[in-house]
Design a protein that fits this description.
Layout (H helix, E strand, L loop, with lengths): L1 E10 L5 E4 L1 H11 L4 E7 L4 E6 L3 H14 L11 E2 L4 E2 L3 H10 L2 E7 L2 E2 L6 E6 L5 E10 L1
Antiparallel strand pairs: 1-10, 2-9, 3-7, 3-10, 4-9, 5-6, 7-8
């Protein structure tokens, strides 16, 4: 059994953005040379997400608008207070909650060297907490 881990740096252009990373995942699987196995895509941050959906601008917009409606910025969240452990005020509760809804990872089989995705499935890194340097992992295992 072979194992490959690749960390990818990413930076959104907007405070709340869905970034299609499907091609990066496919390229990583191809480069590692595993024919049959599993690929995991995992974010390293609690205010980002990894999700799978159809890559249409209208669908992306609907997802983002729905998350904003469900988790408004101006709600009086408990996290919005001084955090001595961080030395700052926590103000990113919406990012934590949006991440909770979309999840932090996805998993797909690798069959004959290719990621097995549905015909309309694409993989997204979702930024919910501003324009920051971020990382996600692509972990490939198999033979």
């Amino acid at each position: 059994m072979k194992f490959e881990l690749k960390e990818i740096s990413i930076r959104a252009k907007q405070e709340f953005e869905m970034i299609n990373i499907t091609q990066q995942v496919k390229d990583t699987v191809r480069e590692c040379g595993i024919s049959n196995g599993i690929v995991y895509v995992i974010t390293e941050h609690t205010t980002t997400g990894i999700t799978v959906n159809e890559a249409l601008p209208c669908v992306e917009k609907d997802i983002m608008q729905t998350l904003d409606r469900l988790i408004p910025e101006n709600y009086p969240y408990n996290h919005n207070h001084y955090l001595p452990s961080y030395g700052t005020i926590g103000g990113n509760t919406p990012g934590h909650l949006k991440s909770l809804l979309t999840g932090n990872h996805c998993v797909f089989p690798i069959v004959e060297g290719k990621v097995k995705l549905g015909s309309a499935a694409d993989i997204y890194f979702c930024e919910y907490d501003g324009i920051k340097n971020r990382k996600y992992m692509i972990y490939v295992m198999g033979e």
